[in-house]
From TrEMBL:
It comes from Adineta steineri. PROSITE patterns: ARF, RAB. Belongs to the small GTPase superfamily. Arf family. GO terms for biological process: protein transport. This is ADP-ribosylation factor-like protein 3.
């Protein structure tokens, strides 16, 4: 549904009413099992528990905490202090009631506010008020209009070297209709999505009907926003199940999780990641975009850069991200799939690129014209204007590989005048030439910063 100006200006109040109406039904539902929680059950799943690790004596802030079960579970697990934040005053009131019922008022605090107004409630400019862990869990990012401002808030809450732990439903789910039978929305943010909702995921028979305002944020936008705000990736993983029975027509797996009927093992349902706030400044990190045709060896090269095993390689269907240490810099390398159907989406990853690495299969002479055309179009992109270019002439270990000098002539690299560039013959398989390419990146970026 097209959003009216009124809806856009009032989205926070619209969504607040939505979540206020859900609270009583969620508290009474079997999904949330409040009675079990009051008897001592832990609301956290093994996924979150493993990610969080030992939280004894940690200060934690739980963003978009709903009525606080996970917030209180964190306190039960030994956290020194846990603050829960949510936009729904009814949810916060219930959280405070549960804190009293479980004798956790001394170690917990609940704040009712729009997350974008959090700075009005916490003095985050004072170091003693910062947190060891920022935590967000399940159904959070789709309610955020500005993912960059959200990432700034996450970063501003963290101590240096603190961690952001997020377990979330995969953003690909936001593409589907409510019954998950057809694709209805773009994977990429096309503005607010306004809809009417009946019932609620924890009780589909609940006699409530509400308007909602949501946004689709693709995974790269979320991760990049966090990186730009001084966090670095330590873990990121997608999984094909949900720990909750919250989808229509769901089926239970043998290990007790849930999948969508008809889409079992076909799409990701969950996402988890850990990002750590840097002690140094974000300028010490570089965003590297790794592109090239399919079968050029990009994924193998990325694994070599990350010092990982290359005995088993599968083609990249979406993207991979690895953090690589190089001289004076930490390189966040984005490997984007090179299949023809994926290439139109490359432009969604151009923003804030520091270095473009373009990989060529030096042995596949039949595709030289195709790879030349793709590279030429990349160099015309406004968002990549002036971005240093490193061409890896890969697979030099093969007998029929073209020399780097011949590829230079074929690609007319000598005609490039608007950016530093380098072509480096290499073999991802033998690792020859890879180190030299990284050294060129470090030297070039260092020179540009002076």
């Amino acid at each position: 549904m097209t959003a009216s100006n009124h809806v856009l200006s009032d989205f926070a109040n619209i969504n607040r009413r939505l979540w206020n109406d859900k609270v009583d039904y969620h508290v009474a539902s079997t999904m949330y099992d409040v009675s079990g929680f009051l008897q001592g059950n832990d609301s956290l799943n093994s996924i979150e528990i493993d990610l969080l690790g030992n939280i004894q004596e940690k200060r934690i802030i739980h963003l978009q905490c709903h009525f606080g079960l996970d917030t209180l579970s964190l306190a039960r697990r030994g956290a020194k202090q846990v603050i829960g934040v949510d936009i729904s005053e009814k949810a916060i009131a219930k959280a405070q009631e549960l804190a009293t019922a479980t004798n956790l008022t001394a170690s917990t605090q609940f704040i009712c506010c729009n997350i974008y107004d959090l700075h009005q409630h916490l003095s985050l400019h004072e170091s003693e008020n910062l947190f060891d862990i920022v935590f967000a869990s399940y159904g959070t990012i789709n309610w955020l209009p500005d993912i960059n401002q959200w990432a700034h808030i996450v970063s501003s809450c963290l101590k240096p070297n603190g961690i952001f732990v997020m377990v979330e439903f995969h953003p690909i789910l936001d593409m589907f209709d409510e019954d998950y039978t057809r694709i209805e929305n773009s994977y990429f943010n096309q503005g607010p999505i306004v809809s009417e909702r009946e019932g609620t995921y924890a009780d589909r028979t609940a006699p409530i009907r509400n308007q909602s305002v949501e946004w689709c944020h693709n995974l790269s936008d979320v991760i990049q926003a966090l990186i730009q705000n001084g966090l670095r990736i330590e873990t990121i993983k997608e999984f094909d199940y949900s720990p909750y029975d919250c989808f229509p027509n769901s089926v239970k797996t043998t290990d007790g999780f849930y999948q969508i009927k008809g889409l079992e093992k076909k799409i990701p349902l969950g996402l988890l990641d850990i990002l750590r706030k840097l002690r140094s400044t974000p300028q010490d990190e570089l965003r590297i975009l790794l592109l090239g045709l399919d079968n050029a060896g990009k994924t193998t090269l990325l694994k070599v850069l990350a010092s990982e095993d290359i005995s088993h390689i599968t083609p990249t269907q979406g993207f991979n991200i690895k953090s690589v240490q190089s001289t004076g810099f930490k390189l966040n390398v984005w490997d984007i799939g090179g299949q023809r159907k994926i290439r139109p989406y490359w432009r969604n990853y151009f923003e804030n690129t520091d270095v473009l690495i373009y990989v060529i299969d030096s042995s596949d002479r039949k595709r030289f014209d195709e790879t030349n055309q793709e590279l030429s179009e990349l160099l015309e992109e406004e968002k990549l204007h002036g971005v240093p270019l490193l061409v890896f002439a890969n697979k030099q270990d093969l007998l029929n590989a073209a020399k780097a000098s011949d590829i230079t002539d074929g690609l007319s690299l000598h005609q490039i005048r608007d950016r530093p560039w380098q072509i480096q013959g290499c073999s991802a398989y033998t690792k020859e030439g890879v180190k030299e390419g990284l050294e060129w990146i470090s030297k070039t970026v260092t020179k540009n910063k002076k």
